[in-house]
Amino acid sequence: MTRRLRTLQEYVRAEAPALRAAAREPDGEPPRAPLLDRLATLQIPRKYARDPLVLDGEEYLVLSAVERVVFHEEAAAYGDAAALLSAPGSLTAGMLVAALGDDAQQSAFFGRLHERPTWTFLAMTEPQGGSDANRLHTTLEPAGSSFVLNGEKRYVGNAHRARTGVVTARTRPGPLGIRCVLVDTSAPGFSAAPIPTLGMRGALGALRFEDLPVPEEALLGRHLPATRRGMWGWLHAFNPLRCVAAAMGVGLARAAHLHVAARLAEQDVTRRRRLAELGARIAGVRSLTMAAARAVDADPGNAHLPAAAKTAAAALAVEATTTALRLLGPGARLEHPLLDRWARDAHGIEHMEGTSHIQRMTVSQALARGDLSPA
Ligand SMILES: Cc1cc2nc3c(=O)[nH]c(=O)nc-3n(C[C@H](O)[C@H](O)[C@H](O)COP(=O)(O)OP(=O)(O)OC[C@H]3O[C@@H](n4cnc5c(N)ncnc54)[C@H](O)[C@@H]3O)c2cc1C
C-alpha cells in the first residue's frame, strides 16, 4: 500500500470507533457519526467536489476504487458495515449520475449533497427478482412533453430516508429500452417504507411509484448514444461498487477476527491456529480486493476481478463471523452482541451488487472470452 493510502487508512481507523459506538442496531433513525458526515461530501467527481478531505496536506476525494476500498474496509473493520450502508452521501446513485448525467444533472445532484447530509438511493431490484436486470417491470411512459413512472422496487439502500435517487425503468422492450431517471422523493406518486431485516438492519427500504411525473431533464444519458444510456452505465458503475461491497465483507471479517484475537488466551493453541488460518484467508481476499480495485481504476470495464473479489469476500465474511462465534464457544451470540450483529450483517454482503451466482457467471464469461487464464 502506498504512503498516501496508508494515511487515508489511518484517518478512517482513528475515526471509526465513534461510528461503532453510534451504530447499535439502527432500526429507526440512522446512526450519525463524524466519519459518516465526512463521507457524505466525498465520492463526488472533482468538478463538483467542494470539500475534499485533506490529510497531511494532500486532497482525497475517495473517488477511485482503491480509495473507496481502503475507506470502506477500514470503516467496516473498526466501525460498522451496516452504518456505512445507512450513511448519507452519493455512493451508489452517484456512480450512475457520474457515468450517465450531463453537466446540469451532475451539478444539481452533487450540489445537493453539499447543502446538508443528504441520503440518496439507487433503485434497481424489483419484487419479481433482482438478479436479472433485463426483466424490469417498472415503466417510464411518455405523457405529453414529459414522462410518468409506475412500478415497485425493494431492498433499496436508504430508499425510505432519501431526498433523491436514481431509478431504473423500461421505456420499451429490449436492452436499449432500459433507462435511468433521477427521482425527487417529494414528487407526487412517490412512497417509501423501511424493510425490516435480520442483517444490515435499518439500511433497506421499498419504493412504489404511481403515475409519478418525470420531466425530460430527469432522464440520465440524454446526451449519450442509445447504447450507452442504460445498461452500459450501470454495468460500469457496478464494477467499482462490487469492489466496495467486497471491501465491506473483508472489513466485517477483520472485525470478527480482531474481536476473537483479543479474547483468546495465549495458551489456547488449537483455537489460535484456527484463528491464524482465518487471518491468512482474510489477507488473501484483502489483496484480491485491492487488485480488483486497481484493475477497475485502470479499466472501468474490468468486470471479472471485482466479481471474483465480491464472491470471495461474501463467503469470507460469513466464514469469519461464524468461525469467530464457534471459537468463543456456546452462548457467544448472547455474550458478544457485536459479533452476533456482524454475523447477521455478513449475509447481506452476498446480495449486495449481485449474488455470487451472478458474479460467477461474469467470471466464467471472461474465462470463455479468454480475458483470463484458467491457471
Ligand atoms: C444489504 C443489501 C443492500 C442492497 N442494496 C440495494 C440497492 O441499493 N439497490 C437495489 O436496487 N438493490 C439492492 N439490494 C438488492 C440486491 O441487489 C438483490 O437482493 C440482488 O440483486 C438479488 O436479487 P433478489 O433478492 O431479487 O434475488 P433473485 O434475483 O430472485 O435471486 C434468488 C436466488 O436465485 C439465484 N439466481 C437468480 N438468477 C440466477 C441465474 N440466472 N443463475 C443462477 N442463479 C440465479 C440468485 O443467486 C439467488 O440465490 C440490496 C440487497 C442487500 C441484501
Structure description:
- With 375 residues, the chain is α+β, with helices and mostly antiparallel strands.
- It has 3 domains: 3-115, Butyryl-Coa Dehydrogenase, subunit A, domain 1; 120-224, Butyryl-CoA Dehydrogenase, subunit A, domain 2, CATH 2.40.110; 231-369, Butyryl-CoA Dehydrogenase, subunit A, domain 3, CATH 1.20.140.
- It is 50% helix and 15% strand.
- It has 12 helices and 9 strands.
- The protein has helices spanning 3-22, 34-39, 65-78, 81-85, 91-100, 103-115, 231-261, 269-298, 304-327, 332-335, 337-351, 356-369; strands at 53-55, 58-60, 120-123, 139-143, 146-157, 164-170, 178-184, 190-194, 204-214.
- The strands form 3 sheets. It has a 4-stranded antiparallel sheet with strand order 4-5-9-8, with no helix packed on it. A 3-stranded mixed sheet has the order 3-6-7, with helices on one face. It has a two-stranded antiparallel ribbon with strand order 1-2.
- Strand 4 and strand 5 form a beta hairpin.
- The longest helix has 31 residues, at 231-261.
- It is globular.
- The two termini are 26 Å apart.
- 49% of the residues are buried.
- It binds flavin-adenine dinucleotide.
- Residues 85, 92, 122-125, 129-131, 155-157, 200, 203-204, 348, 351-352, 354-355, 357-358 line the site of flavin-adenine dinucleotide.
